[in-house]
Amino acid sequence: MTPRPHHPRHSVPLLHALTFIVALCSFAYELVFAELYTVVFGGSVTQYGLTIGLFFSSLGLGSFLSGRLETDPESNFFRVETYLAVVAPLGFLLVILLGTLRYPAAYAPLVGAIARLPIVTIGFLSGFELPLLTTLSESVRDTARPPSSIARGVRRLTSHLNRAFGVVLGAAFSIKRREGKPSDPADETSAYAAVLGFDYLGGLVGSLVYVFFLYPAVGLIPSVFVLAFLNGVAALIFASTTANTHRPTLRSRLPQPVGSTGKALFAVCLLVTASTGAAAVNAGPVGEDVSEYYFEREFELEYAPGAMDVAVTDTWTTRYQRVTEYNRTWTGSGDNPYFGATTEHCLRLDSAVQLCESWADSYHQGLVDVPLSMFENSTDTKVLLIGGGDWAAMDRLQRHGVSVDHVDIDGEFMQRAKTDPFLAQYHDGAYRYQNKSTRVQDAFQYLEQSEQRYDVILLDIPGATDDDQLPLYSVEFYSQLRQHLTADGVIATWTYSRYSYAQHRTAYYNTVHKAGLTSAAPYFAWEDIDADGETERVERFTLLAPAPRDSLSPHNGTAYMNRYQHRYQAVEWVDTPRYAGVRPNSVFHPNYDILIK
């Protein structure tokens, strides 16, 4: 006996709602993985560009091959959503794992290619969604079953919107016009156009939800579990509305995808949805566990195998940066060349080390005490501090009694640093210093608006480790700094080693020279950081100016300057180095060689 044709119980509004949900997930996945690749491999412009390109090319390939799935659109749509709910979190964890592996540099391209497989797979599977949903929507419209009252309301609203936009479009385009009142409002919009519209709308909402809610409120790691949970929910909702209506057997009472794809896949969908839902509900612990594992392994990779054990003690994310506090313990053979104790506490901003106990004091003494030895310790000396949200540099400045304008963009970090136990021991409540003015503002914007000139400008800013820092290492930025110097003013900043970061050094010095800072005075901070009785170079700094300034005056400085005055008396002003064939870094024409790789 020939079975009667199957008529699905889906409604057009339901299919449109599912289109919205799955598009939200797919576009949000794109942003989640782009940010993940930025964390693991660095370079936000590069990673976002690659991720978007790979996602959309894979999306197109999936759409191109989707015709082979349209013979059984219900079963295949259920499969696609289940596969996405599985692939996305597993792919995310794969990238995390790859970021913790130690491998020869020659294998870096291979590791990078493997790391991109998850976003390629997600894009490929997402490419099936729109064609399958269009096929299902068209099959529903072909049935004569009367719509529900809710469906009729949604269709009337769609019709009114269609007509309203038609008036606007008619002013600029040649459009199809209908005479009289159409018998069915839905006829004015094809199934494909309607599904495509909800797909684009879902993509927009997915982007907004990720940027303004998931990433700042939930975090990067839990976000992927939230999205996978939504894919699983979409699959289960779809399955629950699909049934064989022509044969009232026990099998027909189960969702159609179970009958055609097997109970095993349905069980997998239930398990994955429950697991990702549990991970989403416990977003805090899950995010902390995964991030701690990743960062501990990543930090350990900076040392020889087995030389250092890292344990993350705290991590949080502000709007502008990720903050990680951790203990590092020497486990290598022989004497510890990094610090005197067995274990010390450190803090990082994103991937760059900001402070460690063994050199926190000497770093700030080198940044602040050295340039201020050239000026009087009075409020007549004007200082601009850019960055320094940990307040440690401010502590050194208040000891000199100078007037300070303090500009930092990350107000959340500055507020938390006031009470953070680790940072508090270095700033001694300097945020209460009476002769300072603090602004939570972009430094570029402040310099453009201010007419104040300064004797000393201190740059206590993150290293050039990511595209986001490129403007702070540009010709335009240093030109603004130069214009805010007094006649004898200087800029003090920490700089990278010429031996370890030669590409950065050449691009950096050509940049500052182009900005008119043609004189430089390199120097180091000094300290016995490993308690072996010998003084070591701790951090490299450079004074910059449009012309040579007076020599340093260690005898007018602090106890630190007096202790190492023989070293600072030897500091001389030289011409800022220039390198042939190296382009300066500009805001609108960046030179990515200035980034630390």
What percent of residues adopt helix (DSSP H or I)? Answer: 40-55%
Cα Rg? 30 Å
**CATH fold name of the largest domain, please?**
Rossmann fold
Tell me the overall shape: elongated
CATH architecture of the largest domain: 3-Layer(aba) Sandwich
Amino-to-carboxy terminus distance: 70 Å
Task: Determine the structural class based on helices, strands and strand pairing.
Answer: alpha/beta
Number of strands: 12
Short note summarizing the structure:
This is Spermidine synthase. The chain is an alpha/beta fold and 597 residues long.
Description of the molecule:
This protein is α/β, with parallel strands linked by helices. It has 2 domains: 12-176 and 185-223; 361-594, Rossmann fold (3-Layer(aba) Sandwich). The chain is 51% helix and 14% strand. It has 21 helices and 12 strands. It has helices at 12-41, 44-65, 73-98, 108-115, 117-142, 149-170, 191-218, 220-240, 250-253, 256-261, 263-281, 283-300, 360-372, 392-400, 411-417, 421-427, 443-449, 475-483, 502-514, 559-563, 565-568, and strands at 308-317, 322-330, 343-349, 352-356, 382-387, 403-408, 436-440, 454-460, 485-494, 519-527, 536-545, 574-575. The strands form 2 sheets. Strands 7-6-5-8-9-11-10-12 form an 8-stranded mixed sheet, with helices on both faces. Strands 1-2-3-4 form a 4-stranded antiparallel sheet, covered by helices on one side. Helix 1 (12-41) runs antiparallel to helix 8 and helix 3 (73-98) packs across helix 11 (263-281). It is elongated, with a radius of gyration of 30 Å. The N and C termini lie far apart (70 Å).
